[in-house]
Write a structure and sequence with these properties.
This protein has 264 residues and is an alpha/beta fold. It contains 11 helices and 8 strands. It has an 8-stranded parallel beta barrel, surrounded by 6 helices. Helix 9 links the parallel strand 6 (177-181) and strand 7. It is globular, with a radius of gyration of 20 Å.
Length: 264
């Protein structure tokens, strides 16, 4: 299998569904890559899944680079995309270019992702103009949860037109793809048909050009947190708990380690 590139992702629009998952470490990235996944997103969701933050806002550029370096080492074929965290690009275009360049250079990711629509059009264009591929992200943008009042579906009713304009702005700025998060299915379908670049849905229905989930949600490692759009394909939380308890019991009872696990 050849290494997946940004032009390849763009070319798949209308041909087949694109698959993206998050990863934050070497082992997980290796497993995803071996399965032939198209894209691995090192999301700022690392803050809530691995670092214990209440949301994505505290995540730093340094933390994103650290985790992305590990993911890149475990990836041979998939396109690796690094999230630009809160306040790494919002201050202005020069700051955005500087941080995007640093994150690409130090992590060896192949694209960056940032949140925002019309308000980030000039920023996206400036980053693309220095040859850094950008994936957009509109709809529910987790870095804006305080303004939005929490994790809510975006683009309902009169807000639909704004979301359409956001999508068009991201495309016009030169993004190679766009994430649609928590968007009504019919609106996501309309945007997907309207754009020439692929849409990647998360809580945006089946009509997007591709789908993304947080890997820990898919594996059942996120506890009771389960948004409507998440489907658990495994329950590893219970499996890990079972394995740890079995280990503890065997150590207490003197069953492990036995002779077969000892050196002579």
């Amino acid at each position: 299998m050849e290494h997946i590139t940004v032009p390849y992702i763009k070319e798949q629009k209308g041909k087949r569904k694109l698959i993206m998952l998050t990863a934050y470490d070497y082992i997980t990235a290796s497993i995803l890559d071996e399965q032939g996944i198209d894209m691995i997103l090192v999301g700022d969701s690392v803050g809530t899944t691995m670092l214990g933050y209440p949301n994505t806002i505290p995540v730093t550029v340094e933390e994103m680079i650290h985790h992305t370096k590990a993911v890149v080492k475990g990836t041979k074929n998939a396109l690796v995309i690094i999230d630009m965290p809160f306040m790494s690009y919002q201050e202005g275009i020069e700051q955005a270019k500087r941080n995007a360049g640093r994150m690409m250079k130090e992590s060896l990711a192949e694209a960056v992702k940032l949140e925002g629509g019309q308000n980030m059009k000039d920023t996206i264009k400036a980053i693309v103009d220095i040859d850094i591929p950008v994936m957009g992200h509109i709809g529910l943008t987790p870095q804006s949860i305080h303004r939005m009042g929490g994790y809510k579906v975006q683009g309902k009713g009169k807000d639909a037109e704004k979301l359409i304009q956001d999508a068009l702005s991201v495309e016009e700025a030169g993004a190679f793809a766009i994430v649609l998060e928590c968007v009504p299915r019919d609106l996501a379908k309309e945007i997907t048909q309207m754009l020439k670049i692929p849409t990647i849905g998360i809580g945006a229905g089946p009509d997007c050009d591709g789908q993304v989930l947080v890997i820990y949600d898919l594996l059942g490692l996120s506890g009771d947190f389960r948004p409507k759009f998440v489907k658990k394909y495994a329950n590893l939380k219970e499996e890990i708990a079972r394995a740890v308890k079995a280990y503890m019991d065997e150590v207490k009872e003197g069953i492990f380690p036995d002779d077969s696990h000892s050196f002579h």
